Structure formats: C-alpha cells, structure tokens
Amino acid sequence: MKRFVFLLFIILLWSCDDGDIIITSFEFDDVDLQLCSGAAENEFVFFKINQGVNEAISFNFVSADFSETEETAMPITINLNDGNSSLIYRQFNIAITADYYCSNIPPGDVIVTEEMVGIAGTATIETLITLEDDNDGIAAEDEDLNGNNDLTDDDTDGDGIPNYLDQDDDNDNILTSEELANSIPDNDDPRDTDEDGIPDYLEEDDDNDGILTRNEDANQNGNPRDDRAAPGELPFYLDPESTNAEVIVAPSRNNTIQTTFTTTVNITGIQFDGNNGNFQDDNFSFGSRETTISITTEL
C-alpha cells in the first residue's frame, strides 16, 4: 500500500507581521479500513481511525451500485463535489471509536480540534471476489484433478459446479466432507470403500454393487447415510452384499460456498479547503477491506 503522508499547513492566525502555522502529519497505512451504513438510503461511510494521535479520515458517499458482498461490474467513480459525498480529515480532543461514524448520535464528549474538508477529487471503489471455497475438507489446490492449474474445469459429477466449489463432488447426496474419513489407523487418505482407486467422495457407486449411492436411500429422504438393514450394520451404500431395492433419487443437496469479497477505495486529485500549496500528494489509498459470507445455491 502506498504510504500516505500529508503535510497540512493550516494558517490559524495571520497578522500584518506574521502568522502561526500548524504543521500536521498523519498516516493510516497500518489502520484498518472500516465501513458503516449511513442514515439515508444507499449511504455509506468508509473511515480510518488513528487512535494514537486522535485523528481520522472519512469518506461519506451515496451509491445504489455499491455493495460489499457483490462484485462491481466496473469500478464505481464518485466526484467529491457531487453534493452527495464528502472527504473529511479531523483531529479530536480524545481518542474516538467506530461509534463516532456508525452511531446515529455521536459521543457528546468528542470535540473536533482540526478539520480539513475535500472540495475536489475522484473516488474509485471496486469490489471483487478474491477467494471462494466449499470448505469440504479438500484444499482447493488438491481439487485440480487434471493438474493444469485451472480449478474451473474439474467437475467430477458434471453438474456445472467445479469441485473446489462443490460440497458434493460426486452428486451422491453425501457431502464430500462426510466421505473422507476411513477406518484405517494412522492413514489420512480419503475413504475408498470398494478399493478401486477412486475415493468415495468422487465416486457415484461407493460399494460397487451396481446401484448408485444416492439410489440406496431406502426411505428417500435425501440422505443415504441413515439407511441400513439393522442398527449397527453398514449403511446400504457402503455394503456390497446388501439386498436393498434400488430407488430413484435425484441429487438434492443445496450447495454452500464461502466467498470473500475485497473492496478497495482510492481517491485521486484531492483538493482540501484552505491552504493546499504544501500537500505532498493529492492521491490517497484508503486501502482494502475483506468481507466473507456463506452463499447457498439451491440445486
């Protein structure tokens, strides 16, 4: 991240002889970028707080296109002089918290001792998906079955969902994470019930009895794991000697993936009110923030 250091020269007193100039340096490289929703519809505020020197910088804006959990088709650009946005640097008499920006009523004991308001500049906001994984117990890089360093073309069950995003890689209605553990001491290899070299989580017929695993769901509740001849016996789908009748069951598992969105905020061409002649840089990178959510798709 580009180091952001402004030298702000603020003329507080001026007489015919001389004036007092306060020189303030501030930086926010090591400070987390935070976000709150504003009071109005589609209003947001990004801010950074440097509690060590009681200062903060904030960017308030209105945009119907922004979401921290949706990708932007293209970067959102906002002009600071559009009447709906503001960039403000402030110093305070005491350390502040996020409540200063996120609460409807700011703390009453906080006093702004210095303030600079941006009167021109362009903000750019971009939200991208930076990480997706199905959390199925198989590392994403290990689901590159053809070894071509492209995870998107490995789709064992042909359901249109690549394995690294598919919680049920073989569409047998048993989650991949539930098909990994074997009963072999000191062996972490994925379970391979029929010992054909294909692990159960990638095979539609785990016991090689000619009946697809999902069709050994005798009670047809979408879960073959609870179907067995008697308590304590192997479930039908793991028992090649079972005599259960085949039923036709469609793939029924919803698919949930963990998705991390990264939002990046930059402002260029900044002009503050007051004396701007000694600014070292008119560009400011607010930096990035990550938001991870679970997204479920009904199959």
Detailed description of the structure:
The protein has a domain at about 5-130 and about 260-290. A hairpin with a 5-residue loop joins β3 (about 35) and β4. The two termini are about 40 Å apart. The chain has one helix at about 100, and strands at about 5-15, 20-25, 35, 45-50, 55-60, 75-80, 85-90, 110-135, 255-270, 285-295. The chain is mostly beta strands.
Structural class: mainly beta
| Overall spatial form | elongated
Mean pLDDT: 88
Q: Which blocks of ≥5 consecutive residues have pLDDT under 50? A: 1-24
Biased composition (Acidic residues): 139-158, 186-209
Organism: Aquimarina spongiae
Protein name: Thrombospondin type 3 repeat-containing protein
GO molecular function, one term: calcium ion binding
Break the fold down into its secondary structure elements and pairings.
Layout: E1 6-14, E2 19-26, E3 34-37, E4 43-50, E5 55-62, E6 76-79, E7 86-92, H1 99-102, E8 112-133, E9 255-272, E10 284-297
Antiparallel strand pairs: 1-2, 3-4, 4-5, 5-7, 6-8, 7-8, 8-9, 9-10
List keywords for this structure.
mainly beta; TSP_type-3_rpt; 299 residues; EF_Hand_1_Ca_BS; two-stranded antiparallel ribbon; disordered N terminus
Short recap of the structure:
With 299 residues, the chain is mostly beta strands. The protein has one helix spanning 99-102, and strands spanning 6-14, 19-26, 34-37, 43-50, 55-62, 76-79, 86-92, 112-133, 255-272, 284-297. Strand 1 (6-14) and strand 2 form a beta hairpin.
